Amino acid sequence: MELILIPLLSAALAYGAGQQLNRSLAFALSLVPGLVALALGVHSIDVPWFSDDIRLALNPSGWSNLMLLLTNFLVPVIVLAGWREGEKFSLQVALTLFMQAALNGVFMAQDGLTFYIFWELALIPIYFLALLFSEGDRFAVTLKFFLYTFLGSLTMLASLMYLYSLTSVGDDGHHSFAYSALQAVELSTTEGFWVGLGLFLAFAVKIPLMPFHAWQSDTYTQAPAGATMLLSGIMLKMGLYGLFVWFVALAPESLHYMLVEDLFDFRDLIMVMGLAGLLYGAFIAMRQSDAKRLIAFSSLSHVGLIAMAMLTMKSDGVNGAVLQMWVHGVNAVGLFLVVDLIERRLGHRDLEQMGGFAKSSPFFAATALIIVLGTVAVPLTNGFPGEFLMLKAVFNTGTGYCGVLAALTIIFCAVYMLRFFQLAFMGPEKGSLSSLEWNEKLALLIIGAAVLYTGVQPQIILDMVQSNTDSWLNAIAESGGILS
Amino acid sequence: MSALLIVFAAAILVLFLGINKPESAMKWPSVILLMLAGLVALSGVDLATWLTVPESMISYSSMDRLFVALLCGIGALVIAVFDALSSKGSDRLGLMMLSLTGAVMLVGQENLVMMFLGIEVMSIPLYVLAGSDKQNIFSNEAAIKYFLLGAFSTAILLLGSAFLYGATGTLVLQSMTHKASMYAHFGVYPPMLVAGLVLLAVGLLFKVSAVPFHFWAPDVYEGSPTRSTAFMATIVKIAGFSALLRVTMAFEPMSLWYQNAVAILAILSIIVGNMMGLVQSSPKRMLAYSSIAHAGYMLLVLLLVGQAQFEADSILYLYLVAYSIASTGAFAWIEWATQRSGKMDFTMFNGLSSNRWAIVNMVIVFLSLAGIPLTAGFAGKYYLFASAFSIHPLAVGFALLGTLLSIAYYFRAFRFAFADTQESTPNAKFSWVLMLVSVAILLVGCAPMWFMP
Amino acid sequence: MNTVFQQVDISHYIYLSTVLFSIGLFGVLFRRNAIVLLMCIELMLNSVNLLLTALSTYMGDAGGQLFVFFIMVVAAAEAAVGLAILVMVYRNTRNTTVNFLSNLKG
């Protein structure tokens, strides 16, 4: 509960402080929730909210703990370096902190409606951040983004309401919105398909999976750096988290639904979507000269693999996917930060016009290299263990094509990420960068440290989620889901 | 009953004092009197024990008293908000309170005669209020349109009442229920009963501006002075839907027969209201269409009548609380923006964001209309849609889609508000009242159970 | 005991008042002069009065006739307000037809 109330309060404080808010104060405010949670532990809560059977239930499990860590680790980094200090700095910080509250709520929710409410709530600050501080035709772009995601949310709400109406009636004569009750509902395959489709749409739009990605590149590119970091670093994880916890675990029956008789079921469709996004994102990223767009498409490519790994429903694959959610969050924030730091100094982000920054700012180049290597999944960086686990699971599932094609991503990723690094930091010097501010250095350092530490000690993360994953997979197996 | 007397006495008092006192002197006393009436209604104290009123004419159940309190509260809010924005004229306050008297009567009606009286006492002052900007040709047009169509719909409602009287032999709603259940038992409905019910419903649907009886609303809302518009959009909807629900409950034994018709009307209202709202260039007109869409959502409540597991009246009550608070707020912002910029289209909002606290209030109001979580609008929509979902999933599907569309036009206001900066600060009184509106919206949104009777 | 009213079948009253009501209704829909519209609405109200009186006589229930008194009073008030609005419009436009009602559109 404190993980929601404290950021809300901080947001109000930050907004109220107005021009008096400076960088260090904002950073301190954003650190508070994480520190409090570390010191006192996260308190769960379960009280009646909309009615006796629709409760405000927040109770972190293993996965949520990792996601809470991600949120409360990345938000301070974003506050620290994501926003340029200016006239509206306090508004940006306030909205970011508001976002932090909503995200924490999403990851802790143990009740269908609680989840939905925080899910929607997270849209509001990011909408305003994108609307107020984007470049170009911002109203149309942000509205497209908002309507896309809101449409998904509505189908999710409809599915949740339907599941709710099927939950067993308790002693008090009411249905229940509790996660465990929703999970216990037995659906027929066809029924499950429609319920699952509603849930799936919400997450597929947010991730985004391949045919639902239309909002992504425009929003990522035109939104200010801080908003892009929030979107790709944390909000995207909301989608992936939901995909497994609120879709696969709630409606595993839907995965059997045959779209083409005896050949192609719903799970295959999602796998194909992930694979398509993975390849499409990689191809587009290789051809981009706009650095921010490049990172946006690389993100599309990476999440495709994560979604595929989740759908393998193997302990390895799912654990790898969760690990990779953490890794991708850290790396995406790092990469967008690197691009933004360059853009702040050059005024543009055209790769062709860059080069040789390694000479003028070696520290910057070194940290950027660490993040790039992490993204490419070089051993001993954070990307490696996750990608390895995921690819192993994908290989062992279904036909071999998927695995082979998915493995190509490593090569593609190396191509475009190294191209990015080479064009920007190596080669003949095309202009030099002025030195980094303290906050920018600190942020790069934090990200770099996280990349290396996770690379050396991935087991810490895996231990956090292992038991949770297993219990879900068992529950799915019992309710007749696939464990092949 | 006591609340009705207080409101009526206050109306008469204000009308007569208005002969030689300026209106501004009477605003706050009337706000206080209305709040008092609301509190009396909430507490259920009977101040007029000497007065015996036949139960078959008018009586207030505890639920009705909540509606009365809501009416008084919103009436007071409208007066307080628009007082802060200074308006001309001196006879309007009395007319508003008189109209409110009619609305309070309508909430307590048990009898077609009282229903007719309530509607008329509510409407006639509104015709005048619509035209109260006498020199303004738009206001004139609004008044005459509202008057002609209002009187027309009243006539239809009366013919319906007469038919029902002929078919059931009584004017008392409760006795009609017995007759209706008798007919329903045999499954035969005399044409006169059916015609009467349809005509009565048409008359009431006119008042609450549901499609296809909505066409007057955009013109009248746009042309009338904004204060009158806010009053129409809230008070008339509250009283109208309360009456509609009362009538539906009376004919609940026939529910199978009209259920689909209600669902179709709701879907139509939602589609037309939201689609037309998308293409408007004037915010006032946009809100008129949005109010049509909201009427569509509220029609879904009628589907719940007769289902024991849902309390249709408390669901409707919460929705109306959310809708009317946010609507009043939205109209207040439009009035303020118009006065500030002199414009009638969306550019009136230009640069509203320059005031840090004002913009927060405005955003909350519009988010609530759109039904975003943790605002009152979401709470109202949630209970309504979740309950109707099990009865008519298709209609709820349309309602959800309508909500999606509505976001596109509510958010247009933000586009302009943040577009450019242009310093202007609303006066303190206005800011305070609007702050109160925001707090109320968030409170209802965060803890809806406290407000759910 | 048969009164003179009851020698005519009730259905005739119903048809008559429905026809009167329809005349008023079509008048409202198709005429253009606001004063004629007002008269048409009055015709509709009075046809309802006729119907209520007849029904109440046939059923031996006073309620309907009571209703008629209320309708008459309210109709008078309504007509007064309506005419006042018309006068106001006439002052601004020098016209009483409803054709001018086209300024407001979206």
Structural class of chain B: mainly alpha
Please bin the fraction of helical residues of chain C: over 70%
Distance between the termini of chain C: 61 Å
- Radius of gyration of chain C equals 18 Å
Assign an overall shape of chain B: globular
DSSP, total strands of chain C: 0
How far apart are the first and last residues' alpha carbons of chain B, in Å?
Answer: 20 Å
Write down the overall geometry of chain C: elongated
Report the oligomer.
heterotrimer
Largest sheet of chain B: none
Instruction: Tally the beta strands of chain B.
Output: 0
What number of structural domains do the residues of chain B give?
A: 2
Q: Give me the strand/helix succession of chain C.
A: HHH
Write the layout of secondary structure elements.
The complex is a heterotrimer of chains A (484), B (453) and C (106).
Chain A: H1 2-17, H2 23-40, E1 45-51, E2 54-58, H3 62-82, H4 89-108, H5 112-121, H6 123-133, H7 138-166, H8 179-184, H9 189-206, H10 216-222, H11 225-248, E3 258-260, E4 264-265, H12 266-287, H13 291-312, H14 315-346, H15 357-360, H16 362-376, H17 383-395, H18 400-425, H19 438-456, H20 458-478
Antiparallel strand pairs in A: 1-2, 3-4
Helix pairs in contact in A: 1-2, 1-4, 2-3, 3-4, 3-11, 3-14, 3-19, 3-20, 4-5, 4-6, 4-11, 5-7, 6-7, 7-9, 7-10, 9-11, 10-13, 11-13, 11-14, 12-13, 12-18, 13-14, 13-17, 13-18, 14-16, 14-17, 14-19, 14-20, 16-18, 16-19, 17-18, 19-20
Chain B: H1 2-17, H2 23-43, H3 62-84, H4 92-108, H5 112-130, H6 137-168, H7 173-186, H8 191-207, H9 216-223, H10 226-250, H11 255-278, H12 283-304, H13 312-341, H14 356-370, H15 376-389, H16 393-410, H17 412-417, H18 428-446
Helix pairs in contact in B: 1-2, 1-4, 2-3, 3-4, 3-10, 3-13, 3-18, 4-5, 4-10, 5-6, 5-10, 6-8, 6-9, 8-10, 9-10, 9-12, 10-12, 10-13, 11-12, 11-16, 12-13, 12-15, 12-16, 13-14, 13-15, 13-18, 14-16, 14-18, 15-16, 15-18
Chain C: H1 10-30, H2 34-59, H3 63-93
Helix pairs in contact in C: 1-2, 2-3
Can you walk me through this structure?
The complex is a heterotrimer of chains A (484), B (453) and C (106). Chain A is mainly alpha-helical. Chain A is built from 20 helices and four strands. A two-stranded antiparallel sheet of chain A has the order 1-2. Chain A is globular. Chain A starts with a helix and ends in a 6-residue tail after the last helix. Chain B folds into two domains: 250 residues, no CATH class; 197 residues, no CATH class. Chain B contains 18 helices and no strands. Chain B is globular, with a radius of gyration of 21 Å. By secondary structure, chain C is an all-alpha fold. Classes of the chains: A mainly alpha (484), B mainly alpha (453), C mainly alpha (106). Chains in contact: A-B, B-C. Chains B and C meet through α5, α6 and α9 of B and α1, α2 and α3 of C.
